[in-house]
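Worked Example 4.2. Read the sequence first, then its structure tokens.
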Amino acid sequence: MTWLELWEFLLALPSDSMTYSAMSGDRFRRRWTERDEMQALALDLLQEQIRALLLVNEVSPSNVPKTIPWPRPDRRTPEQIAEDEARAERAARFLASLRPPAPDPEVERRLREAVEAAAKAAQQAV
């Protein structure tokens, strides 16, 4: 078998084969098979159809439950998950740095006194 034939063989593998999963970076076999994907899609569609049927038959919209899609597997590698968590932490720290500082009670008290003094002066001038 030549390298070209081997490559063509690998490209012809089904998307749910272990070799195909490993080639796409999924070393821990978290990938669903095509059957799993189709079943989850069918369940989501069935939930939507039931919800539409209830709405069409004049059931109060508040009584119709919200549809929750079937949970899909997380296909990220542990390294990608760690990178995403670090990125979220950096974003949270950046957003926290943009918040204005808490007001100083001493500054608030002096400002209030200055406003009251200005109001008294305006009343005496009248």
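Now turn to a second chain, presented in exactly the same format:
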Amino acid sequence: MEESIEKVIYDETDKRLKEMGAPEYQFPEKADFKDVIWMAALAGVSSLLIVLCLMGVIQ
């Protein structure tokens, strides 16, 4: 019998919280200014492509 999605989610959440609570867990580095610039640039390019598609320039 298949597990319910709720049980799967709770089990996975519990597993990940235990992993992150371990003393040897290394948290990822914080995003710096360069990362923020890349995110903004990618969001801008994506928005431009969406607008061009809506205008019919890109088909």
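Notes for the reader: DSSP finds two helices and no strands in the chain. The CA atoms of residues 31 and 43 lie 16 Å apart.
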